[in-house]
């Protein structure tokens, strides 16, 4: 008499596992697209101010031309900041070695950037601005104008993010053996 052995199949990987393994390349591509689109908005806004000499209230980037209320919406800015932070956290496990270090740097800078937007959102919702300022004001905005500050914040998050992605696509042999995704470029 042979015993009947019942094998339970392994559970399907969860969303986070898929995002950091088989879906990592696609998820990073989508994340990069969103980041680049956001960057483009800030660059267009800077061109409108510094090249086209538009008054700051009229310089709203591309989306701000169609929907001017978006530029002044703290909800929209906060939404983007939290989306970025969630993206950094969710895609973090797919990075190893040098790329993880640079991804972490970008993520921690985004934590601060998110905090600044949370502070702005709370002020807008409570109608109680920092230090009695006439408009919601972030901590760094006490020293730097908002347009320039956001260009700076986006740059200091973007640069280490790009470094992380380059290292992720071009890992050392040791890093390649630790990777669980197929993002690494083929070696020659």
TrEMBL record:
Keywords: Membrane, Transmembrane, Transmembrane helix
Regions crossing the membrane: 26-51, 75-91, 151-169
Domain of life: Bacteria
Protein name: Uncharacterized protein
Organism: Kibdelosporangium phytohabitans
